[in-house]
């Protein structure tokens, strides 16, 4: 009977941990890099996120923490332009090298050289 109770408590413990989100203070290594697509730019480093458009403004966000649930990552950030604001940016990993920032097109991972060529020339 003790074995049955242990098995039930282990199963309920397992179910409760799968529904929770994990948290970190840095960007996951698999997501770091340069992304382009749909006239958008995205650059993810360990502690920062930069997003913008080719030949236009690129905004810098300092990452305070990252939480993950499923394929969705929430980046809790700090944005300073005059005063400080603390937006939460939601990114969804839709493929091996593809990310969608909610409100933007899907962007795909590219090399640093391709990113800067796209940022400066828009192609």
Unreliably modeled segments: 1-18
Tell me the helix content: 10-25%
**Could you state the order of secondary-structure elements as H and E?**
HEEEEEEEEEEH
Largest sheet composition: 8 strands, antiparallel, barrel
Distance between the termini: 68 Å
| Shape summary | globular
Topology:
Elements: H1 2-18, E1 22-24, E2 33-37, E3 40-44, E4 48-52, E5 58-69, E6 72-81, E7 83-85, E8 88-95, E9 98-101, E10 106-110, H2 112-121
Antiparallel strand pairs: 1-5, 2-3, 2-10, 3-4, 4-5, 5-6, 6-7, 6-8, 8-9, 9-10
3D structure, described in words:
With 123 residues, this protein is an alpha+beta fold. Helix content is 22%, strand content 49%. It has an eight-stranded antiparallel beta barrel with strand order 2-3-4-5-6-8-9-10.
Features:
single chain; 123 residues; alpha+beta; eight-stranded antiparallel β-barrel; 2 helices; 10 strands; 22% helix; globular; disordered N terminus
Task: Describe this structure in a few short sentences.
With 123 residues, the chain is an alpha+beta fold. The chain is 22% helix and 49% strand. The protein has an eight-stranded antiparallel β-barrel with strand order 2-3-4-5-6-8-9-10.
């Amino acid at each position: 009977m003790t074995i049955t109770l242990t098995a039930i408590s282990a199963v309920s413990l397992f179910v409760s941990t799968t529904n929770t989100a994990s948290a970190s203070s840095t960007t996951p290594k698999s997501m770091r890099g340069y992304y382009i697509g749909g006239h958008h730019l995205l650059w993810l480093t360990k502690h920062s996120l930069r997003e913008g458009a080719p030949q236009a403004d690129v905004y810098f966000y300092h990452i305070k923490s990252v939480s993950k649930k499923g394929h969705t990552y929430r980046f809790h950030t700090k944005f300073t332009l005059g005063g400080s604001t603390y937006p939460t940016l939601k990114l969804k990993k839709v493929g091996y090298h593809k990310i969608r920032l909610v409100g933007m097109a899907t962007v795909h991972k590219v090399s640093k050289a391709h990113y800067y060529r796209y940022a400066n020339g828009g192609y």
